[in-house]
Design goal:
CATH superfamily of the largest domain in chain A: Cytochrome c oxidase-like, subunit I domain
CATH class of the largest domain in chain A: Mainly Alpha
Number of domains of chain A: 3
Radius of gyration of chain A: 26 Å
CATH architecture of the largest domain in chain B: Sandwich
Order of helices and strands of chain B: HHHHEEEEEEEEEEHHEEHHH
Radius of gyration of chain B: 28 Å
Helix content of chain B: 40-55%
Number of domains of chain B: 3
Oligomer: heterotrimer
Number of strands of chain B: 12
CATH architecture of the largest domain in chain A: Up-down Bundle
CATH superfamily of the largest domain in chain B: Cupredoxins -  blue copper proteins
Helix content of chain A: 55-70%
Number of helices of chain B: 9
Chains: A mainly alpha, B alpha+beta, C mainly alpha
Number of strands of chain A: 6
Distance between the termini of chain B: 64 Å
CATH topology of the largest domain in chain A: Cytochrome C Oxidase, Chain A
Shape of chain A: globular
Number of helices of chain A: 19
Order of helices and strands of chain A: EEHHHHHHHHHHHHHHHHEEEEHHH
Shape of chain B: elongated
Strand content of chain A: under 5%
Strand content of chain B: 15-25%
Largest interface: A-B, 97 and 89 residues
CATH class of the largest domain in chain B: Mainly Beta
Amino acid sequence: MAEAGTADERVPETVVRPGPEVRERLQRIWRTEPGLLGVVATVDHKIIGIRYIVTAFAFLIAGGLEALAIRLQLAGPDRSLMSPQAYNQLFTMHGVTMMFLYSFPVLSGFSNYLWPLLLGSRDMAFPRLNALSYWIFLASGLFLYTSFFIGQAPDDGWFNYVPYASKTYNAGPNIDWYLLGLIFLGISTTVGSINFIVTLLRTRAPGMSINRLPILVWGTMTASVANIFAVPAVSLACLLLWLDRQFGTSFFEAKDGGPPLLWQHLFWMFGHPWVYALVLPAMGIVSDALPTFCRRPLVGYTLVALGTVATMVFGFGVWVHHMFATGVPDLALSFLSATSIVIAVPSAVAVFAWIATIWTGRPVLTTAFLFFAGFVLLFVIGGVSGVMTGAVAVDWQLTDTYFVVAHIHYVLVGINVFPVIGGIYYWFPKFTGRMLSERLGAWNFWVMFVGFNLGFFPMHITGLMGMPRRVYTYGAEMGWTNLNLLTTLGSFLFAAGVLLFLINVVVSLRAGEPAGDNPWDAPTLEWATTSPPPPYNFAVIPTVASRHPLWEDRLDAEGTDRSQLDRGLLLDQGRETIATTMLDAEPDVILKMPGDSQAPFWLTLALSTLFVAMLLHAWWFAGAALLGTGLAVLVWLWPEAELGQREASLHSGAAQGAAAHV
Amino acid sequence: MKQPLLALLHAVNRVVRAASKFRSASSFAIGLVLPAVPAPAFADWSPLNYLTAHGPRADAILSLTYGTMVISCLVSVIIAILLGSAILRRRPSLDAANPRALAVKRSGSGLPWIYVGVGLSTLALFGIAIWTMVVLSAVATPSAKPKLTIEITARQWWWGVRYAGEPHDRIFTTANEIHIPVGEPVSFTLKSEDVIHSFWVPALHGKTDVIPGQTNTTWLEARVPGTYRGQCTEYCGKQHAHMGFVVVAEDRPTFEAWLDRQRAPAPQASGALAEAQTTFAAKCGLCHAVRGTQIGGRLGPDLSHLKSRTTLAASTLPNTPGHLGAWIADPQHIKPGAKMPRLDISGPELAQVQAYLDTLD
Amino acid sequence: MSSTATLDKTLRDRFGPDARRLPVGTVGGYRSSGWFGMLFLILTEASIFGYLVFGYFYTAAFATGAWPPQGPPRLAYALPNLLLALVSAATMGWAERSLHRGRLTPVALGLALTLVIGLAFAGLQLLDWRAQAGLVPGAYASLYFTITGIHFAHLLVGLCVLGALLAWTLRGYISPTRAAPVLIGAAYWYFVVAAEIAVFATLSLSPYLG
């Protein structure tokens, strides 16, 4: 029986000012199935984005509670609130949670939600892969946390140095949990990155050329390309160590010729680009949202975009600065130190761009603006302490002390958490149709800002006074007591600020002021549709003529064209969006997008079974899970005629026609 | 071709060394003055601080530390002021007729901020980079070839110390307390028996990791006699927090006297003391050694001259009879997870062991 | 002309009834989303091999004594395998070119041949492992078996891909317009071959180059 295929080509339909019947038809085509099936099978990037953000915040809270427990233990000398084993598991899980389960997923969530809207598209390039990256993130996070619930959490820090992580010194399954968990999570990060890159290359609105992309897109794109090359390093390192621990290989066994430093090299070849991946998209959030509250476009767009890429490219060359004390030869030390210091230059570009935008603009002091302004200051403090650690001779004194802890928290909380919370104040109206309370928001910001600085600034001093990292207690004679108490108090204040944020979210979800399409009078495309957006994002695929489509009537035009938001491509023959050429974004292909699919969910279950089986050494079970994984992938990738992925069957006219062209 | 190149390299080398001597001189001056202010405050109640330098390597690093710290604080303050001014400065009020007006008409204005700001930042950063290179070369080699080499073996969670290479060529081993002569460089070889540790004496120099499978080296020189606290600074397991050590710098005669005492074998035990020694051998001999006797356990620290040390259990406790007794009776209570088990030892046996240890000075 | 009129003209040029017809679905071969996705998948998987090679040479640099400890590995299986890999790239290329020319029978033949050669490669690899069983356990043996093992895993995936492509070609799913699955799968296969070249150069060639 001949199957209906998709026409090989057609002229895409256009529409001017679509009416309600058009919107209704698009709604029917794009909406997620209601009920449990919809929950499991949805590929709506907005739903996936919210899931990412909410799950990441759940992990943020978990990691924060771990930190508060640590601070209680360290509030005074020689305290015995917990055993050293418990402490070591806590600080490890705190690091793992924040570095892997919160910082990048939350940015993925923002990007997942916003990219198609910012780019004027209806979906990401690979909608099912999008769903898969979330499900795997959730599964790997739960996988890692199960270790905690049975008291077998990893206890060798978030970078898990050997030989302490080897079987000789850490016999339990705890480290295996870490290793398998990271490999599992790495799959999510990798497929998510591939999705972002291909989306950027293919599915943008007509006219959305490279130089019109929002900086968030530049930031996430840079991070995604970096992840493609960086994540394999840690996945490989984890695999090799896992083999050492299960099967007695000797990748990291010094007595059998395996250099322990190999782990550090592989880990930091991943780890350093990773920390830039954690902050560049967040810097992009600020670069896109801050100008709205300055009532002017960002100063130095091109420089900021190039600076983003430059930071990441250089970031690949400096990983050895995490190993300055390991006995690296002097020549390498000089080169690496110089590079690590000079890598601050592109960051300086961004800092001055933001200050210039505020100075030459007209600030509107909303809560979001406060978070972005606070972020600039915290960024600079974190950056200069980073320059200090980059000066290798100084690093020999301050590495592995609380000075570094101060630095990493200023850069991570300052450059990731603050923009994220500011970003939520900014985009919450778009996500939910309601405004967050500005009064609660002001309290939220100041409590967080004061608490954070009170907690973490003293750590610079504690570090200079020699307090090492990862100590579960310290003696009273060390002189660190008062500063540690101050840090503990500050941390609790900071946590109270985070709590205020959560309260604001919960309260505003129910009782927040209705937002409207564009409550901030912002310039970018996501504000051209309803709040929250319909499942199809745009009834008309916009045609873009500048970086600020919604401000064009108020800025001197960059060209004679104007962006068109109410006339253009319709593409309503099923789930469709437009693929455009890479550089200039001319319409190229009509893409047929997959709808709701259960395959990502089942594939995640199969993978979870595989990793659990490997953890438990149930090899036959693992083999079966592997087969199940392969099957799920095959079903997923089976070409479908309605998606235009194949000809109809052998006996249809189309295939015969093609075969005739011999 | 080679000759002029070599000459050029020599000239550059001389310039750098001269510059670093100037740096050392000025850092010496700064090192005297600046730390003098917080030094009394720090040194007394912060034994691990690295803002008081007592050796040439630490001196050079300290001036760079202060320099980058000052620059960092300056930059932070300047940015804070710029940021505050940018937010709070007065602007002409909004045109009431056009509330939707943007602040500017053209996207481009404001670029000079970036040019000036990044230009100044780049200058500062390059300056710091060059200064770092200078300090690196200043601390690279000691003023003279070290006459003494000490072999450090790090283990979970204590430090083995072995003196070799002295002209007298009589090797001995001790633990957790290192003595060095003042005013001359001492070389250290660093080995690990198990996991990665890090050897750090903040007052004298930055840290060097101790990595199994490779031997790292470092050198220390103390300018001033004193007792300097050291600490392991690479997470190494449960009791990483309690893996400290002590470096005592003393003038040559005192140092020689200490060496002689350390080399001397344990005194002969007789009578009640011999009985105490037997108890000690039975309870402790499996892991510990006392030179000059049959007691030769190698798993734990050498105890040949335990009484001469100022601290116990890798600088966890002061070396007093009370603390020693508590430690022997229940090490797991003080340092849970330490490799020294809680022994089945009775009160009288403990008294005997302590009595014997009291003779090991 | 008013801006609205200019716009209408632009819209007509771009999108009106005389405007270009755009292809629909997974077309454009090397411009399809799936092909780009595969490209980046290849880049990330190739990075794994890059890091493995780094690990190999890093470990070699820190080795005390000879490297490899028991002398250079025998090439009895490695060399034929390299040649098999190169031939399989040629057969795959033949299939691809035939597809572009619209001849579907050579496509199926080329895929089948590549699959058979791939199976032979797998068999030879197993024999090689058996021959290397005398390697003393240690860093070198770990690296040897793991590097070849990771390549073997990628090869197995490649065999599954070839199997699926063969099935889809025989079912008539593939045509010069709907060529993407074969082009994407071919790209993966070339990656497997390139990885084999890298593995061979590292494990089998570099010991002879000192």
